[in-house]
Design a protein that fits this description.
415 residues, alpha/beta, two-stranded antiparallel sheet, 14 strands
């Protein structure tokens, strides 16, 4: 019998707040975290909106000298990790730190650091580059800094698979615990890509919404008037723990990670396979790994980006794998309110799925005024809904054809 893996702590930095309660309550109330981007001058850009983290104050956790040596993505990851560790009740003085690891994914990493240092190079020459440039930029440093800060000496690395990065981090962390290589894993993602170059790149790819005059209604997953996703930023960190270890210390358990499915479309750099075959196989493998039937799924937190091809492809995949049952369960898109947190999205959305299990509620998909004819599932329009959730699926798909589906459940729902 394989080791059971549970979630005992959660922390978040998001466009809807910098605590789990702030994020969750805002989602239930249908609030949007999307607004006009204030980080830099966007007058020359087709898109001028984003899910920007507001009121972020790392000073209680990270001192001024440390912050100067950290990219914003690393600051987000450390703050979210601190919140998750506190939430878990872990006593770092007594746990075996050799059996506590960290896997934190990111799609892009320290791009703001790269931009600033490149500008310094161009304007002032190589001697003015910061000695901290490389460690501030590289993607693995979120995991590295968390490990250093808390003394976690188990498996430590980053996953990089675009918008599936943090879902891969959670999948890997589950498997690490299952094979007995760790008792505890700090897993999730962090992203801070609201920068001039990143915005310009997504604009040129024609992937993002230009509904600049109405930011709160710009992210419209599954709506026929959608015109692209909205960039977001932030971090979500989950504390994964073996069930026996969690029970022994009397930890609160949010839910159990039951299975993961990972596939590739092998189709296109940015577009999903039109028939959703990669997404379908990811969900099928996750359900097989979890040892549950499609008819047992109570809820799906979709990837739901608000792109034309992506929303249709995912809908097709869900219908293929769940058949008639697909029409009987609620699905939603957290991105309708947070925007797309890229490499951190999967962790944020799994956190939301776990809250749905805990609270018996699913939030609405906002801005779904006119459903696309090809997107005909129950996406929870209008208000949030009371819903008993024993088993939930969370989907994450990334540029390059990377697909991850995770199954989480009520810890008492499976013997």
């Amino acid at each position: 019998m394989s080791t059971r893996v549970v979630v005992t702590g959660m922390g978040v930095v998001s466009p809807l707040g910098c605590t789990v309660d702030e994020l969750w309550n805002s989602l239930l109330e249908g609030k949007s975290g999307i607004s006009t981007l204030t980080r830099f001058d966007t007058s020359a850009y087709p898109a001028k909106i984003a899910g920007e983290v507001k009121d972020f104050d790392p000073s209680i956790i990270i001192d001024k000298k440390e912050r100067r040596r950290m990219d914003l993505s690393q600051q987000y990851a450390i703050v979210a990790s601190e919140l998750a560790i506190k939430d878990s009740g872990l006593d770092l003085e007594i746990i075996n730190l050799n059996r506590c690891g960290v896997v934190i994914g990111s799609g892009i990493g320290g791009i703001s650091t790269f931009e600033k240092q490149h500008s310094t190079l161009e304007n002032s020459g190589p001697n003015r580059i910061s000695p901290f440039f490389i460690p501030m930029m590289i993607i693995d440093m979120c995991a590295g800094m968390v490990s250093i800060r808390y003394g976690f000496r188990g498996p430590n690395y980053a996953t990089v698979s675009a918008c599936a990065s943090s879902a891969h981090a959670i999948s890997d962390s589950m498997y690490i615990i299952q094979r007995g290589a760790a008792d505890i894993m700090i897993a999730g993602g962090s992203e801070a890509t609201l920068t001039p170059t990143a915005l310009a790149g997504f604009c040129k790819a024609k992937a993002i919404s230009t509904r600049n005059d109405d930011p709160e209604h710009a992210s419209r997953p599954f709506d026929r008037d959608r015109d692209g996703f909205v960039m977001g930023e932030g971090s979500a960190i989950l504390i994964l723990e073996s069930y026996d270890h969690a029970k022994k210390r009397g930890a609160k358990i949010y839910g159990e990670i039951l299975g993961a499915g990972m596939t590739a479309d092998a189709y296109h750099m940015t577009a999903p396979a039109p028939d959703g075959h990669g997404a379908k196989r990811a969900m099928a493998l996750a359900l097989e790994d979890a040892k549950i039937n499609p008819e047992q799924v109570d809820y799906i937190n979709t990837h739901g980006t608000s792109t034309n091809l992506g929303d249709i492809s995912e809908t097709k995949a869900i219908k293929e794998i769940l058949s008639k049952h697909a029409y009987d369960i609620p699905c939603n898109s957290t991105k309708s309110m947070t925007g797309h947190l890229l490499g951190a999205a999967g962790a944020v959305e799994l956190l939301v799925a776990l809250k749905s299990i805990e609270q018996g509620k699913v939030h609405s998909t906002t801005n779904l005024d006119n459903p696309d004819d090809e997107c005909d599932l129950d996406y929870v329009r209008g208000e949030s809904r009371d819903c008993k959730v024993n088993y939930a699926l969370s989907n994450s798909f990334g540029f390059g054809g990377h697909n991850v589906s995770l199954v989480v459940g009520n810890v008492n729902g499976k013997s």
